[in-house]
């Protein structure tokens, strides 16, 4: 694994905020958001004022500050302002119901919550149940609560970073909950540096002229890295979209700001391909690189994207626990259908049910290790033991590795089906269904038949212009039989209008299994 020389006393804010001022990039645009062009000097000042304002509210070393913020400059200021004073930033998913915020704020024991005004009603619905919360700071339209911008205006623009250790807690990220309720993955001050200096520099092949745009939000790992701390570490510009990343909003944002590198998820790429070609082709001319994560990218979506935009999509895989990408395709080294090769700073191995490492092209559970991985889940001792296995992180994903070192995703450990004594990957069946012209998306789970044997069932979302019908169901079954081993075909097909997903775009198959 690659090693970085990081001093024992280290505060992440110095490497991602202060360093840009020291490098003479103060006047350069760091973030574009709506009408705002935020310079690196603006970031530095906003971070310092936020840190000082939090100290005035009584926030001390290692105490948590929850961030329920839309993608905006205030998110950046609050995240690094919290870290700079030695406190712990805890970004929260902005798409949750009030009951989930009750749980997250109780679990994190955050003393301060910084919240966008549009999201405040979700907090007010459970305000009386928030035992540990002392202050609610609202970004715009604060009403009876503390006003974020007034606090900043009264705070000093100068702030010396707390002398934290490189191994001190810096922030938590709650898992997206693809297999249950979110867990708080603890991350340390040095973690972002490993991602930026190894994966960011070596794999993304970004230049000083690049401008990034991630449809994925800053509250989870993929968006946080690609659209905030990696661009900041490399001194680039990034586009922030506070709104929901619908295809129309994404195309409009790209047409307006002309970013050069785009990060999306398979679901979004599929939806964007549904928008009329005449309206979209020219909008993407500024983009030179596209990346995808969150769920394995179906080859059919990639092929259609290549035809439409003459651009590749580089599929990568990472996790909240690993902080960012641990396996990925790289520009110029695309292997269609594969998740790519091990990223710099990581090692990987595939093991069988006994814990023994398997050979080439043998399916097993993927374990990875690297210096950006979370040491534990907050308040989840047993789950931490199951997932953080010594230096190794158990991803819970089934993979195989080919002779050239490329990794191929097969499915989640608990998603795999055994049909007639033979393992079946739901991913393979889903991707095969999506090769049919009528299918936009598909999810496959195991269902018991009349003999109490497990067989595949497919939930299918149709493309525009196609209607659910028994004839189409039969045609799809026959299509799968002709493409892959016949025993893998779905015995039942249910047409749906949507599939349950996490905020990162991962299909929540466990919900379909219980319908």
Tell me what the structure shows.
With 515 residues, this protein is an alpha/beta fold. The chain has 3 domains: 41-164, Rossmann fold (3-Layer(aba) Sandwich); 197-412, Rossmann fold (3-Layer(aba) Sandwich), CATH 3.40.50.12780; 417-513, ANL, C-terminal domain (GMP Synthetase, Chain A, domain 3, 2-Layer Sandwich). It contains 16 helices and 26 strands. The protein has a 9-stranded mixed beta sheet, sandwiched between helices. A 5-stranded parallel beta sheet has the order 4-3-5-6-7. It is globular, with a radius of gyration of 23 Å. The mean pLDDT is 93.
Entry summary:
The protein is built from 16 helices and 26 strands.
Please outline the helices and strands.
Blueprint: H1 12-22, E1 29-33, E2 36-39, H2 40-56, E3 64-68, H3 73-84, E4 88-91, H4 98-108, E5 112-116, H5 120-124, E6 135-139, E7 146-147, H6 148-154, E8 169-174, E9 184-188, H7 191-202, E10 211-214, H8 221-234, E11 237-239, H9 247-257, E12 261-264, H10 266-272, H11 277-280, E13 289-292, H12 299-309, E14 313-318, E15 325-328, E16 341-342, E17 346-351, E18 364-370, H13 381-387, E19 388-389, E20 392-401, E21 407-412, E22 417-419, E23 422-424, H14 426-434, E24 439-448, E25 454-462, H15 470-483, E26 492-495, H16 509-513
Parallel strand pairs: 1-11, 3-4, 3-5, 5-6, 6-7, 10-11, 10-12, 12-13, 13-14, 25-26
Antiparallel strand pairs: 1-2, 8-9, 14-15, 15-16, 17-18, 18-20, 19-20, 20-21, 22-23, 24-25
Helix pairs in contact: 1-2, 1-3, 2-3, 2-6, 7-8
